[in-house]
C-alpha cells in the first residue's frame, strides 16, 4: 500500500520509535481534579517565563484547594485565586506578556502549506501548534491550549490561567499561551459551567485538588507519555492524511486542514519501555 493511501490511524500505528519524543516530567503539570487527572505539557522553547512561573506556583502549592471558577461553554475554563487572597511565595507577582517572540533557527519550525485566517503561516515547533509572521512566532489557541489570564493591561498576568475548551484563535497574540493539555482533556470539557463568583458565598466551581510538576511526584505516579514528533516524514504523512482523508468513506477531499484540527498523537509509554 502506498504510504499516502494510509489513513491517520494506520500511520500512527505503523510509526517507528524514532517518530516519538518522551515528554519530560520536568515540563509536565499534573492537575488533580475530583473527576480525574489532567496533564499539561509546558512549552520548552516559547513563553519560557510563563513556564517557569507555573512550575514555581505549582511547587509552592499555590493552586491546591482553589478552583475552576469561570467555565464558559464553548470558550474556556479559567482557574486560580479568584479573590486574590493567597500569598505568592517564590513566583512573580506579575509577568511581562509574551504574546509573540523572535523566531530562531534553533526552534526548528515545521510549516504546513495550508492557508490560515489568523497567521501568515502556521505549523509546529516541538509538536506545538504555532503561527509565524515575519520573524515572529507565537503559540495558538487550539483546543487544550493553556494560557495566562490578565486584565486590560498587557503585563498583568501572574497566577490566573485558562484552558481553551474549543479553539479561540482570535485570542492569539493577545494573551500568552504556554502549554497544551496532553491527557485528560475530557475532564476539562466536563467541568461544571460557572460564572466568576462575586462573593465568597457564591459558587466557585469545581475544586483544584492540586497542581504539581510531574518530576516532583513519586516515580510510579509520574505520567509516562510520548508525543509524535512534528519534524519527521511520518508526521508529514500524517498531516497529508488529515488534509485528504484516503479512506473509502470520504467522497470529498478538500486538500486542506485546519492547524487546530491536527491533534498531535500522544500515547502512554509501555511499562517495559519506561523501565529501560
TrEMBL record:
It is an enzyme of class 5 (isomerase). Gene3D superfamilies: Cyclophilin-like. Pfam families: Pro_isomerase (PF00160). The keyword Isomerase applies. The keyword Isomerase applies. InterPro entries: Cyclophilin-like_dom_sf, Cyclophilin-type_PPIase_dom, Cyclophilin_A-like. Keywords: Isomerase, Rotamase. Its EC number is 5.2.1.8. SUPFAM superfamilies: Cyclophilin-like (SSF50891). This is peptidylprolyl isomerase. It comes from Hyphococcus aureus.
Amino acid at each position: 500500500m502506498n504510504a499516502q493511501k494510509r489513513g491517520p490511524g494506520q500511520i500512527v500505528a505503523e510509526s517507528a520509535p524514532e517518530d516519538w519524543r518522551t515528554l519530560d516530567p520536568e515540563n509536565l503539570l499534573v492537575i488533580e481534579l475530583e473527576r480525574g487527572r489532567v496533564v499539561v505539557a509546558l512549552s520548552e522553547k516559547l513563553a519560557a517565563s510563563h513556564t517557569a512561573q507555573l512550575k514555581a506556583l505549582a511547587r509552592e502549592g499555590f493552586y491546591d484547594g482553589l478552583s475552576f471558577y469561570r467555565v464558559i461553554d464553548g470558550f474556556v475554563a479559567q482557574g486560580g485565586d479568584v479573590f486574590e487572597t493567597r500569598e505568592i511565595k517564590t513566583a512573580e507577582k506579575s509577568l511581562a506578556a509574551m504574546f509573540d517572540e523572535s523566531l530562531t533557527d534553533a526552534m526548528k519550525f515545521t510549516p504546513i502549506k495550508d492557508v490560515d485566517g489568523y497567521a501568515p503561516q502556521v505549523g509546529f515547533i516541538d509538536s506545538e501548534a504555532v503561527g509565524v509572521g515575519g520573524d515572529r512566532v507565537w503559540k495558538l489557541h487550539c483546543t487544550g491550549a493553556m494560557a495566562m489570564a490578565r486584565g486590560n493591561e498587557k503585563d498583568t498576568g501572574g497566577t490566573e490561567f485558562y484552558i481553551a475548551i474549543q479553539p479561540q484563535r482570535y485570542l492569539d497574540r493577545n494573551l500568552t499561551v504556554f502549554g497544551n493539555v496532553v491527557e485528560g482533556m475530557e475532564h476539562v470539557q466536563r467541568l461544571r459551567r460557572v460564572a466568576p463568583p462575586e462573593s465568597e458565598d457564591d459558587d466557585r466551581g469545581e475544586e483544584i485538588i492540586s497542581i504539581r510538576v510531574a518530576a516532583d511526584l513519586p516515580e510510579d505516579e509520574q505520567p509516562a507519555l510520548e508525543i509524535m514528533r512534528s519534524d519527521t516524514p511520518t508526521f508529514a504523512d500524517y498531516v497529508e492524511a488529515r488534509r485528504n482523508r484516503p479512506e473509502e468513506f470520504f467522497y470529498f477531499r478538500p486538500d486542506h486542514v485546519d492547524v487546530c484540527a491536527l491533534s498531535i498523537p500522544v500515547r502512554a509509554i509501555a511499562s517495559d519501555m519506561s523501565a529501560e
